[in-house]
Each structure stands twice: as C-alpha cells, then as structure tokens.
From TrEMBL, chain B:
One annotated GO molecular function: oxidoreductase activity
GO CC field: cytoplasm
Domain of life assignment: Bacteria
A Pfam family recorded for this sequence: DAO
Start and end residues of each FAD dependent oxidoreductase domain: 20-367
Keywords: Oxidoreductase
InterPro entries: FAD-dep_OxRdtase, FAD/NAD-bd_sf
Protein's name in the database: N-methylglutamate dehydrogenase subunit A
C-alpha cells in the first residue's frame, strides 16, 4: 500500500517523491535561559500521535518545497486542508489523537 | 490419540489487586513476569495483554540474535542475553530452537569497513567473538554471494560473529508464558490498559477494559505502543513508530548456513530450519501505526537479494507481514524506573532490536522492580540520558535516528 501527499505547488503526488520531515514541534525555543530539559523536550521528544497529526514533508523529487500536512497515522491518509487535529474523529481529544491506535490488521 | 489443541497456560480469575502489573504480553513483559516469579518469589503478578501474547513485535520479528553491537554498554547486555538461550531452553523445558549459525554483515565501502573495524574491536574488547573478513572469506562462508564487481554495491568484506544466529520467536513467547503461569503469574489476554493511576507521585493502579486493578508496581512493556502508554502518565518519549516489513520465500534445500545482512542494501536474510528464506527490510520512512505492507518493499527485497546472490533469481516469496518498530534517536532502548513516578517502570524503545534481549532484560528488570534500585547493567539506558546529552552512539550517523535516516 502506498499513499499520496499533496504538495502545495505540484499537487497530489506519490508518497515516494517525498521525504518525511518530522512531526510539527512548534517554534524553536528561545536560546536565552534555555535548559537542557526544555531543549531535549523540543529537539527529541515526540507526541507519537495515533490519529491526526500535523507534520512536515519535503518534495524531494519535485519542486523542493517544505510544507505541512495533516495525516492520520492510523490509516496513512492525508486530511483535508483546514482540518485541525482535534476536529476530526475525536472532538474531545486534546489534539493528540486516540489514546491507542485502533487495530488495523491487514495481514 | 488426538486430544485437540491445548494452551500452555491456563485461565485465572481477574483480580482487583496485584503486587505488580505488567502491561504488554510480549517477550519483555513475559520474561519479566517469569523472573519475578522464579528469582524473587513475586508471584502475585498480572500480565495484561490487549490482544494475545505475541501479538506485537515478539511474534512478528525475524528471530535474529547476536551480540556484536557498537557500544560497550549494549554489547554487555546483549552478550549476556545471547549466553542465556541454552540455559533458558533447559530450565523452561521448551525447545526454543536456538541455532547459533553465526551472523555475517557485509560492507560495500571503505567507510563501511572502517565502521566494522570499530565494532569488531569493541566486541573483542568485551570478550565477544567477532572478526573482520575480506570478500573472499565472505564467499567461503556463503558460496552464493557474488563478490565480483557486477553488483551495484560490490562486496568489500564483512564482519563475522560466530556465536549469533536465530531463535524460534513464538516458542520463546509460549515457553516464558508457560514458565510464568506455572509459577502463579496470571496472564489476561484481550484486556487493554486504558489508564494508569497515581497519587502523590506514586503508582496506585491501572484501569483496564475489564475493570480497575490496584497495584504499587507497573511495568510498561508495550513494545511499539510504549510511547502511547507512557503518555497515560504524561511522560513523553523520544520515539518514532515505524513499520518494518518482513517476508519468507518458498522452502529450498539447505543452502545458506548463516544470517547475512547488508546495511547498504537495507536487507538481511537467513534460511529457516524449514528451508524458507526469511528476509527483512529497512523500515518504512514515515511514522505510522499500521501494519501495512508495500509492493515497494517486496520489489526492494527481490532486487537486493538477487544482486547479492544472483542464484536466487526466480525464487518466490510466499508471504509478507509487518510489525512496528519503536525507534529512539540513538537506537538504544529506554529502561527506567521510579523516575519521575515511583513504582512505574519503563522498558521500551527497542526498535527492531528487542527480541534478542528480551529474556536477559526481563531478568534484570525483575530485580530492579523488587529491589527498587537499578542494576548497573541497565543504568546506561535511563530516559534522562537524552537531556544529559549522553546519547549512546549505537549508529555512526548523526544522533537522530528517525524515518529520514
Ligand atoms: C518485522 C520485524 C522484525 C524484527 N526482527 C528482529 C530480529 O531479528 N531480532 C531482534 O532482536 N528483534 C527484532 N525485531 C524487534 C523485536 O520484535 C521487538 O523489539 C520486540 O518484540 C519487543 O518486545 P516487547 O516485548 O517489548 O514488545 P512486543 O512484543 O511488541 O509486545 C508488546 C505487547 O503489548 C501489547 N499492548 C500494547 N498496548 C497495550 C495496552 N494498553 N494494554 C495491554 N497490552 C498492550 C501489545 O498488544 C503487544 O502484544 C523485529 C521487529 C519487527 C517488527
Ligand atoms: Zn512540489
């Protein structure tokens, strides 16, 4: 199974044209008074969302643009532009998706 | 006479309190339960498994065991782990089919040979058998290897580690489950932990789909779901969850007597005792929680295998499956306890390395959980190493092992 990613410039293309760039971690913390804890939290820790997350992609074999996408990590589907993580599927969630991924066995 | 299938362990009532609860019925969870009971007489223990034991990586891996990792801290643990298999077969009275056929890693560049030189030196320093081979010696071990200049990445040499090999993964799960259950451990399948309760910085219990359990000790051994489980108590982990695919071919007569791998080709294989070629691929380069398989990887495997061993052309794959790998930035696990929550223990982030280390880690974790003091051998794997900038350098790439590597 493969899936598509929509580049804002080139449109919907095969996943393998892109490079995954990490989940969106928000702005880089200010360097003044930065503690190792805060830095490690930002640079290394993840939310590991099981559900819809905002993430960076790079159109490596295309126009070279970096952009963000909303994708459901439990189905690999892109979400409509404008869907906020906590809108879809689980209105009560805090934007971190389901506490546990559903069973998607396709073996 | 045929009596029908029989499980190796039995059912027990679901109690509302246990002295320890282990979340996750994989090789790590079951091994810890087994050693809690065997070594420490702690038998009032429940293993809670969302689906069935072995559902996770424990039942999906390619069964390779070895102890020639890159850093001394890792080699020490894996080496003890490797020596444990014969002992375990004996005491569990269960045939784990340990086959110490040796592992051969191939290098296709001077840089690759350089990395192996370092790795071999570490192993030898730690008393683990490992040696550098030239291309000719590799071919003596595996006659089907094409060591000419024809392959896309010609073989320059290899790293040979005789004591490694394979172990039957399902047997390990079943054997440990039987051993733990026979000593009084309760195994509750089809039960999901949905919450972990704390009070005054201590664990007080877990919530499950079958009711709440009071307990002062909880081990998170949920494999690829470790980051999800840790988040139940607000702990974030540096983990990326990636799909990793594996496949087996039709059975052939014995032709491959070692585990062969190539980092450059992102491909490894060995021949099972049934004759199938068991092969694994690199991880899918984006995080997700599916167990989807892709045509891309089948094609990749076919190309890689036939480039290395052209005689395999026309070999047919029979089945393909996948599991999840919980990758950390330094490709070493996260083993911790009592920090920041008293009574809460973590054993995750094993990535695609964690089968071989299951029983040995379980043995030390059991001690950790009873004595509440982390054994030396597990100390390097604490979660705080990330904020202390003590990443373990298990790989020679920049210290951020993620989908992009
Ligand atoms: C394709 C593939 C090949 C691999 N090859 C190798 C190899 O050759 N050698 C090697 O050493 N390692 C290999 N690995 C890695 C190895 O399989 C894992 O690291 C190892 O299985 C981890 O064991 P575990 O016990 O920590 O987790 P798992 O075996 O994944 O067990 C975790 C269990 O927790 C359960 N669970 C999750 N959440 C909950 C919850 N909330 N409540 C209750 N239960 C829950 C899951 O259902 C699962 O059964 C491979 C992995 C894959 C996917
Ligand atoms: Zn583009």
């Amino acid at each position: 199974m493969s899936f598509t990613i929509t580049c804002p410039i080139c449109g919907k293309r095969n996943l393998y044209e892109f490079r995954f760039g990490g989940e969106d971690r928000g702005p880089r913390p200010e360097e003044t008074d930065l503690t190792p804890e805060t830095w490690a939290q930002w640079a290394m820790m993840n939310d590991n969302v099981s559900g819809i997350q905002k993430e960076w992609w790079y159109h490596r074999d295309g126009c070279g643009a970096w952009f963000t996408v909303l994708r459901d990590t439990c189905t690999n589907r892109e979400m409509e532009n404008g869907t906020r993580p906590h809108d879809a599927e689980n209105p009560a969630s805090n934007g971190q998706g389901r506490p546990y991924p559903p069973f998607v066995d396709r073996l | 006479m045929f009596f029908g299938p029989r499980r190796f362990w039995g059912d027990n009532p679901f109690k509302s309190s246990y002295e320890a609860v282990i979340i996750g019925g994989g090789v790590h969870g079951l091994a810890t339960a087994y050693y809690l009971a065997r070594d420490h007489g702690l038998t009032d223990v429940a293993v809670i498994e969302r689906r069935y034991i072995g559902y996770g990586g424990a039942g999906r891996n390619t069964a390779i065991v070895r102890a020639n990792q890159r850093t001394p801290e890792n080699v020490r643990l894996y080496s003890e782990g490797l020596k444990l298999w014969p002992e375990l077969i004996d005491e569990l009275d269960f045939n784990l089919m340990f086959f110490d056929c040796g592992n051969l890693n191939l290098a296709h560049s001077e840089a690759g040979m350089g990395a192996f030189r370092l790795q071999v030196a570490t192993a030898q320093f730690m008393g683990v058998r490992s040696e550098l081979l030239d291309a000719k010696q590799c071919q003596e071990l595996v006659p089907l290897l094409d060591i000419s200049d024809r392959p896309k990445y010609p073989i320059l040499g290899g790293m040979y580690h005789p004591p490694g090999g394979t172990v039957r993964h399902d047997a390990v799960v079943w054997g440990l489950a039987r051993g733990a259950w026979a000593r009084g451990v309760h195994i509750h399948q089809q039960t999901e932990v949905t919450g972990i309760d704390t009070a005054d910085g201590r664990v007080t219990g877990v919530r499950t789909t079958r009711g709440n359990i009071r307990t002062p000790k909880v081990l998170i051994a949920t494999g690829a779901y470790g980051a999800q489980t840790a988040r139940l108590v607000g702990i974030r982990l540096p983990i990326q969850v990636l799909t990793i695919q594996a496949m087996v071919s039709q059975p052939l007569k014995p032709f491959l007597h070692h585990v062969v791998s190539s980092g450059t080709y992102h491909c490894y294989c060995h021949q099972s005792l049934k004759g199938e070629l068991v092969t694994g691929a690199h991880m899918d380069p984006w995080p997700n929680y599916t167990t989807q398989v892709t045509a891309e990887y089948l094609k990749h495997q076919a190309e890689a295998l036939t480039d290395l061993m052209p005689a395999l052309k026309s070999l047919k794959f029979m089945r393909i499956w996948s599991g999840l790998a919980d990758m950390t930035p330094d490709m070493a696990p996260i083993i911790d306890g009592n920090d920041p929550v008293e009574g809460l223990y973590l054993d995750c982030g094993w990535g695609y390395f964690g089968f071989k280390s299951g029983p040995i880690t379980g043995r030390y974790l059991a001690r950790f959980m009873v004595e509440e003091c982390c054994p030396d051998i597990l100390q390097p794997f604490s979660l705080k190493r990330y904020r202390e900038n003590r990443l373990m350098g298990e790989i020679s790439t920049p210290p951020n092992y993620g989908p992009w590597n």
